Amino acid sequence: MKKTLIALAVLAASGASFAQATISGNVTSGYRASTAVTTAAGVSTSSDSSGLGLDTAELFFTANEDLGGGLKATAVLSFDTVARAGVAGGDTSLTLANASWGALALKSVKGADYLSGGIANVGGVGFDGKIFSGKTYSDSISYTSPSFSGFTIGLSHAENSVNTVTTGQGLGVGAAGAPTGRDSQRSSGISGAYAAGPLAANLGYTTYDQKGTEALDPSNSDSKVYASAAYDFGVFKLGAGVEARKLVKGTRNDALIGAALPLGAFTLNATFASRAFNDNNAATDGTKTGYGLGAAYALSKRTSVVANYRNWTQNVGDNAKSTETNLLLSHSF
């Protein structure tokens, strides 16, 4: 159960007002064994590593305020690395929502690739930083409509940090861009989603500016179309998603298929992922693929034992595979 902190603020004009904040988080720790394959001058080499350690240590502060007239404000402040080495910042968001007109959100987050986290919680084994792109920072504003019989529409604008930038652009910076177009791209998009009963689906279109040139920035984005769907059949869940991205030069196409099989306290899952570059760069054109297998046993609603295995192509055109095996104990609060 989430712990609740109640802060009392005294307002001279209107008397006493109560603000409520909740604290939640996750601690996941255990054992990892991995083999990383790299290619230099056409020769594949591998390095093995294994050991105990901390996988996840997250802390979230969520505050809600009723502004009256059906309007609600929600602020989320998080720390995504809480360890002996120090505490590092995490995602931050501020949302204004009303049941009659929807939600407006301002966010500064380090988000995963569209397909990395699986489709509607189906699959369970992500491939961000492996088959798909690693997490990147963005500052964004978005609008989500109210639900119309399960349907919602979204509009968004983001100032994305790519390539060398490792932090959000910061207030007043993204509109002018980073020092070079290679480090930052702004994007605007529209999306639609449906979630009701056993079906969850979404699709969208995004366009980018600050693209750079073909000579310097062939892998920067021009536009993308994406879609995914998941269905709960009762005895198992199945999901699939695709993203077709037009680059400054060539294309990049991603795909993911995932399945989850609940068996009482056990949940088994499997994921297959691929990324294909075409006409972008002779050194990177081709397809990378990977698969993941996982199992989780729920000791309670908040504590689980998790085991998973990933196997993926590190380099296009190289048959050598990188692997990762995790055995973890996870607790949410």
From TrEMBL:
Gene3D superfamilies: Porin (2.40.160.10). The keyword Membrane applies. It is a multi-pass membrane protein. The keyword Transport applies. This is Porin. Homotrimer. It comes from Rhodoferax saidenbachensis. The lineage of its organism: Bacteria, Pseudomonadati, Pseudomonadota, Betaproteobacteria, Burkholderiales. It comes from the Bacteria. InterPro entries: Gram-neg_bact_OMP (IPR050298), Gram_neg_porin_domain (IPR033900), Porin_dom_sf (IPR023614).
